[in-house]
C-alpha cells in the first residue's frame, strides 16, 4: 500500500492543477483577440465597443480595457468589424489557420456623422 503524507498530497494536487490549467489554456485553439482603441483620444481603450465577425455574425462587446475575444473558430478568412456609436466603423480581413491565436488591435476615429441605419426601436404595451 502506498502511503502519502500531507506535504506530498499538496505537491501532487498543485502539480495536477498546473497540468490541467496548462491544458485548458492550450485547448483554446483558433482564437482572435485584441483591443479596440480611440485613435482620436490618445489611443484610450474603448469600453462597450462592438466587434463582429461578419461571416457568422458572432459579436462581442469590449470590456473596460477595450479587450475582445473570440475562440474555437474554424480555420478560414474572417472580416472583423469594429464599431462604436459616434465613431467610424473599421473593418479588417484576417485569416486564421488551425491552432492559431491572432492578436488584432483596432484604432477607430470619432465621426461627425452618426449613422442610425442599424438601430431598431421597439415598444410594447402592457
- Please give the CATH class of one domain: Mainly Beta
Structural class call reads alpha+beta
**CATH fold assignment of one domain:** Immunoglobulin-like
Radius of gyration, whole Å: 21 Å
The rough form would be described as elongated
Strand content: 25-35%
CATH architectural grouping of one domain: Sandwich
- Helix/strand order, N-terminal first: HEEEEEEEEE
**Average pLDDT number:** 83
Give a quick rundown of the structure:
Helix content is 17%, strand content 34%. It has 126 residues and is an alpha+beta fold. The strands form two sheets. Strands 1, 2, 5, 8 and 9 form a five-stranded mixed beta sheet that branches.
Please name the defining characteristics of this protein.
elongated, alpha+beta, Immunoglobulin-like, 17% helix, 4-stranded antiparallel sheet, 5-stranded mixed sheet, 126 residues
Structure, described:
The chain is an alpha+beta fold and 126 residues long. The protein has a domain at 28-108: Immunoglobulin-like (Sandwich), CATH 2.60.40.1120. It has one helix spanning 6-26; strands spanning 31-38, 44-45, 50-53, 58-61, 67-70, 76-83, 90-96, 101-103, 106-108. Strands 1, 2, 5, 8 and 9 form a five-stranded mixed β-sheet that branches. Strands 4-3-6-7 form a four-stranded antiparallel β-sheet, with no helix packed on it. It is elongated and about 70 Å long. The protein starts with 5 loop residues before the first helix and ends in an 18-residue tail after the last strand.
Amino acid at each position: 500500500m502506498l502511503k502519502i503524507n500531507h506535504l506530498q498530497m499538496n505537491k501532487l494536487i498543485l502539480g495536477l492543477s498546473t497540468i490541467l490549467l496548462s491544458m485548458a489554456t492550450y485547448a483554446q485553439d483558433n482564437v482572435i483577440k485584441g483591443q479596440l482603441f480611440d485613435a482620436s483620444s490618445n489611443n484610450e481603450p474603448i469600453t462597450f465597443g462592438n466587434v463582429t465577425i461578419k461571416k457568422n455574425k458572432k459579436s462581442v462587446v469590449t470590456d473596460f480595457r477595450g479587450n475582445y475575444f473570440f475562440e474555437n473558430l474554424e480555420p478560414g478568412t474572417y472580416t472583423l468589424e469594429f464599431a462604436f456609436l459616434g465613431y467610424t466603423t473599421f473593418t479588417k480581413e484576417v485569416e486564421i489557420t488551425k491552432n492559431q491565436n491572432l492578436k488584432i488591435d483596432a484604432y477607430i476615429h470619432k465621426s461627425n456623422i452618426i449613422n442610425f441605419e442599424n438601430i431598431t426601436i421597439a415598444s410594447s404595451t402592457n
